[in-house]
Amino acid sequence: MLEKKKNKVNRKQAKALKIANKDYEAEEVDLGSSSCLLVCNAGLMTGASRESLLEKLASYGSIERIVLIPGKSFSFVVYSEKSQAQKAVENINSLEGENEIILVTINKVPVTSEENYSMEYPPGCYLYPNFINQNYEKQLLDFFLGEFQDVDEKETLKNRQVKHYGFEFNYTTNDIDADVPLEEGIPEICHDLFNRLVHKESQSNIRSL
Asked: What is the pLDDT of residues 125-137, one digit of tens each?
């Protein structure tokens, strides 16, 4: 079992190193010879964040930099001391069970920090800052939190609760049954939100799909 886990870890390390080397000239070096680490299986593509990485790695020493790059399933971490990076690798990679993160000591991290990477949104996706004010936001939150108190058990999924309006969503087909509308329509509190969306769509000349 330990040999199987070791092989799995080695495969993840090799895969991440190959991409990091090609894109950023990062190379594996001897343990304890560098303060730079490659986090092989935690990046923006896997849902990692600065906070989640700090939570797992800060106990091993002072972290100077964390680099998370859009579109990548790995990230980079730099400790203040080489000994701290070594301690992190030795402790994290030896954990029993499924490794949440896998580390490799590398020669360097990308010169450009994560703050300088421009976040590109998928085609058709737009971000409108302050689309609604705080008062309306609170009204929406209060309304839906109240609705969730009466959510049917069948509408409770593994990691979240759901509430359907207009039509029932079928998680088997990943679609709605348009021929069977629900008695409960769209809540009135959402009407203003929809009007704003329609107005924005018209302004931006966004075509609905």
From this structure: 766 777 888 899 8
